[in-house]
Model the fold of this input.
Amino acid sequence: MNNLTNQQKGSLMAFVAVMFITPDSLFIRLSNLETWGLVFYRGAIPFIVVLLGMLIIYRLSFFKLLLGNSIYGAGYIVTFSLTNITFVLSIQNTNVANTLVMIALAPMLSAIFGTIFLKEKPDRNTIVAIVITFLSVLYIFYDSLKVGNIFGDVLGFITAAGLAAGATIIRAGKEVSLVPSAVVGKLVVAFVALFFIESFALKNNDIYIIPAMCILCVAIPFVLVTIAPRYITGAEVNLFFLLETIFGPIWVWLVIKEHPSLETIQGGAVIILTIAIHSFLAIKKTQLKSNSPSK
Done:
């Protein structure tokens, strides 16, 4: 890793993280555990794994870092916990493709939140991308309303909004590391699930599926995705995460033959293409600025 450039380090971390995440929706589908049992273990196991790693690296300084997160940390705990819960609930109430397409909206929602709360003026490309993606979402919502999946789609949209809010908080508090707050967020997820969980028992294949999902698809990507933005731009990270929107439904289709609707495929294709083009243009704009001679 020492021989790699920052661009190569960040890209490698983001790519590996997304490749670990892509089977996540499939593992949720394969599990026989009830919804809140899934939510509990997806909070508790990553919390323990990442906390132990943080304590090994930072020791007691971890708690100092956590207290230093201040109001940004508190806000991030709320958004991070919310998205972890609504993601699972969404997957359980609609097609995987619908959930992942909704989550792909996060960059556009983040641009809106940045305009409102951080006074970041969006450029023309961003405004056009926001309009196109939201029209596509309305198209998918209309189809889901007809087939009865609208509740799951709305939860997917809430997940995207939570991710966007979290990204806005990170930008607002960029002088502090919010990783400790994210660890606490996992604990909050497990705690909330305790009020609704019906059984803690892991039976049959769940003995293997749940730990594998929580470590490979949640804990490891969580660490890598937190580190990657230190080396590459948010637009570049967004491009890698579009791979989840593409490969996640493919995994589910190959293994359990779950087919997304034609409207989801059409609307999702427009959203993915729009965000990909927008991210490429943002990367190009950043590179031009960095390469221009300073006056």
Observations:
- The longest helix spans residues 262-291.
- The chain has a mean pLDDT of 87.
- The radius of gyration is 19 Å.
